[in-house]
Amino acid sequence: MGSNSWRQAEEWPLPGTRITDYYLHNTHKANSINGDGRLDTLHPADEYPDVYVYHPSIPVPALGGRSGAVPDLTPMGPKNQIPVELRNDVLVYTSEPLTKGLTVIGEVVAVLFVSSSAEDTDFVAKLVDVHPDGRAFNVAEGILRVSYRNGLERREPIVPGEVMELHLSLGPTAIVFLPGHAIRLDVTSSLFPTFDRNPNRLLNPGEVTEEDFVTATQTLFHDNNYPSRLKLPIIGE
């Protein structure tokens, strides 16, 4: 994508792949596109964490992406993410516009240091290509139900307020971020109806009703001790 071309290789990951960390930053807060969340290769120092509230009664809607739930309601593919990035329960981190093209081929991973007030919750990470005119198109996305953070064999409740290191795979992609474009990471706690809403409780999803829903206060840390970051597989730089 981006260059609209095909590439072939005999190995995966591609030879010469360099995993580069893009760290999350803010000055005040990264809530919504109106915040000041930033993404760059500088390791964070002392920074305030970002906080948002997730309630499953008002989930963040899926806008493009994998879909697979109700195609008429959530059509698949690239869609402008601005409507969801206007929400305060979406954290938005954006790089400076690129001076030259950046080729990303391979698995994209978000490493997030987080805490929650709930006994279980979800975290969603989305890689976005920001065009010079401000349009922002989804490239890859991933979700993690935190009670499965140590494997699918058994669920483990969250200790409220405890900082956890989460690794969210956004899956493999292949894109050239063109000159003048910017790289963006969105973080939130729902992607509905592509994925079911987490009630923020350690319950069987098939038995959950709206009466079970509770509010979760989510905290995302990005400082010297907790360097939350986006790991990009970069080719040829």
TrEMBL record:
- One Pfam family per UniProt: PepX_C
| Superkingdom to which the source organism belongs | Bacteria
The chain positions of domain Xaa-Pro dipeptidyl-peptidase C-terminal read 1-231
Drop me one GO molecular function for this one.
Answer: dipeptidyl-peptidase activity
Keywords attached to this Swiss-Prot or TrEMBL record, sorted alphabetically, are: Hydrolase
Q: State the name under which the record lists this protein.
A: CocE/NonD family hydrolase
